[in-house]
Design a protein that fits this description.
With about 230 residues, this protein is of the alpha+beta class. The protein contains 5 helices and 15 strands. Strands 5, 6, 7, 8, 11, 12, 13, 14 and 15 form a 9-stranded mixed sheet that branches. Strand 1 and strand 2 (about 20) form a beta hairpin. The radius of gyration is 21 Å and the shape is elongated.
């Protein structure tokens, strides 16, 4: 199956037909009833999607393979499964919860800022942030001319040298957590995503993968307005 933009291009070029007639963008088809062809070849329509969660280790890319040969989350999946892709970002130096699916509609909604899907992180930063730093995060910050939405931040514990916090975001910009704390003068030492809306990492071991259960999937779909 193609990504949405690529699919629209194929339809516009006349490569796609439904029951022998040229397809139209947005046209609805019924699996098992309608015959879809791309470039003269039949397409098997997906009727069931795959939803997996992974506890990503540090040093693994959140991508589908890598041209430079680095390890990616899809390299850690069992062979012979569905062709899934990671939803959103979790940078190379971070760890924790990654959702993988072949359901493009759900993935797109979970990543879109319109739906305000919560992502919760456990963050360890250098030093002891003052109340003013926490206030700036809770009110929203501007870093290098870029506006970041307010975050929920709570101190969990700490020592003289570092502090562990809970941080909840409702947008998913590249390296957002690290950029915010760097701007506040408290570089991140460790970053772990523990929750995406109602989906929690739980006791899934590092590097482990498991399918979502029906209740978890239902809550995610509800958060995405489906």
């Amino acid at each position: 199956m193609a990504a949405r933009r690529k699919a629209d291009q194929l339809i516009a070029s006349g490569e796609v037909s439904v029951n022998g007639a040229p397809a139209v963008a947005g046209q609805q088809v019924t699996p098992g009833v309608d015959t879809v062809m791309v470039g003269g070849r039949p397409v098997q329509l997906v009727t069931e999607w795959t939803y997996l969660m992974m506890n990503k280790p540090v040093g693994v890319l959140t991508s589908v393979g890598d041209a430079r040969g680095r390890r990616s989350v899809t390299d850690r999946l069992p062979p012979g499964g569905a062709r899934v892709f990671p939803v959103g970002r979790l940078d190379l130096d971070s760890r924790g919860l990654v959702l993988l699916t072949d359901d493009g509609e759900l993935a797109g909604r979970l990543m879109h800022p319109r739906y305000h899907v919560e992502k919760e992180y456990r963050v360890v930063v250098t030093g002891q942030p003052h109340e003013d730093a926490l206030r700036q995060l809770s009110e929203g910050m501007v870093v290098s001319g870029e506006r970041f939405e307010p975050a929920e931040v709570r101190v969990l514990d700490g020592t003289a040298g570092d502090t562990r916090l809970s941080m909840v975001l409702r947008e998913g910009r590249k390296r957002e957590v690290r950029r915010l704390w760097q701007a506040l003068g408290h570089p991140v030492l460790d970053l772990q995503r523990v929750r995406i809306d109602g989906l929690t990492l739980g006791d899934l071991p590092e590097g482990g993968v498991r399918p979502l259960n029906p209740d978890e999937l239902s809550r995610l779909r509800s958060a995405a307005g489906l």
